[in-house]
Amino acid sequence: MITEDDVNPVTLVAGMLRPAWRHDLYRTLDTPDDNTTLRNAIDRAASGAETFAAQLRRIVETLVAEGQEWLGNGFVHNPNMSEEYLLELCDRGVFTGVLGHLAGPRSLLVRMCEVHRYPESILTLGLGFYRDPDVRPDEFAAFVRRYRDVSGGWLLRALAETDPDSTVKLAAYEAALDGAQAVGDAGWKAIAFHARHLANAASSGADRLAWFLDRHTDAQVLALLRESRTRSAANCSKPAPGTRPTRAFPTRSGAGSTAGRRPVRPWVTRPLPHSPRPVPRTSSSCWPRTRVPRLRSCAS
User: Fold this and answer.
1) Are the beta carbons of 88 and 120 closer than 8 angstroms?
2) Residue 208 belongs to what H/E stretch?
3) Is the per-residue pLDDT at 279 higher than 60?
4) CA pair distance 215, 198, nearest whole angstrom
5) What per-residue confidence (pLDDT) applies to 204?
6) Residues 6 or more apart from 183 whose CB is under 8 A from it?
7) DSSP state letters, 83-122
8) Where are the domains of the chain?
């Protein structure tokens, strides 16, 4: 039986190259016991192993051939994996879920978008194109037009509140929002949240916001914009985590509490000497008075 204490980046790579150790690991993972800790240890060791790309390829191919593909997820995440082999896995349709969540290389993201139209790869690449000054505006515009309908307009929604590297890309994105209502719910939200972003951005004037709202006059967009701004205002009015809301007590002048001045609370009175409870300072008969016991002198 193999435990999590037996797994580290060195022992895992060496063990995966030995059939006896590898099949012992398979038998351990097939037991009905909870193997979550062992599985997590394998993923961490595989992604952090210091080894050559050729060894990583050999291990992954062995796991795929033996029907244990899921054990290769960490090895695919390993930064020493070669770019050529990642592109090969993409073309073969293997480890698609793992490849789609990688941050690079860019060639892999482009291939994942073209071959599989993977939403996470489209989102990562679209945000990178939007903020990278080395990417031409026409290249970004073509990318947005091609993939704006994936996952109901998820890319449009992600770019709605992101600042580009140039106004040319901003204009290209706003042009892609035309007709975004037909893409899906995320298309509606992209228009509304981009309008909110223009309203909150210091670099955007009122004229640009008015121009954008004149271009998108759908009632549903305006309703979403109003709802999002109302929710944002409500969140801003909440106290910060770990604090309590403040309460303004009246002062002697009748105004709110001022700094450096202790507020006066009319309902709190000072107890008299030997009084069992405070006596309200009022002459109204509705307030019950407390009888103060008479003090006897020492002479009596």
Assistant:
1) no
2) helix 206-215
3) no
4) 14
5) 64
6) 148, 149, 152, 153, 156
7) HHHHHHHHHHT-SHHHHTT----HHHHHHHHHHH--HHHH
8) 1-80, 149-234
Which band of pLDDT confidence, cut at 50, 70 and 90, is reported for residue 286?
Answer: very low
Q: Strand, helix or coil at 289?
A: coil
Cβ(125)–Cβ(143) under 8 Å? yes
Q: Name the amino acid, one letter, at 1.
A: M
Q: How many CB atoms lie within 10 A of CB 171?
A: 13
Q: Which two tokens stand for residue 10?
A: 């060195």
Contacts of 145 (CB under 8 A, 6+ apart): 176
Beta carbons within 10 angstroms of residue 48's beta carbon: 15
The single residue listed with the structure tokens 């947005």 is 144
Tell me, what amino acid is at 117?
A: R
* DSSP code of residue 275: -
Using the structure block, give the residue that is written with the tokens 């099949």: 23
Given a contact cutoff of 8 angstroms between Cβ atoms, the answer to whether 125 and 110 are in contact is yes
Task: State residue 78's pLDDT score.
Answer: 95
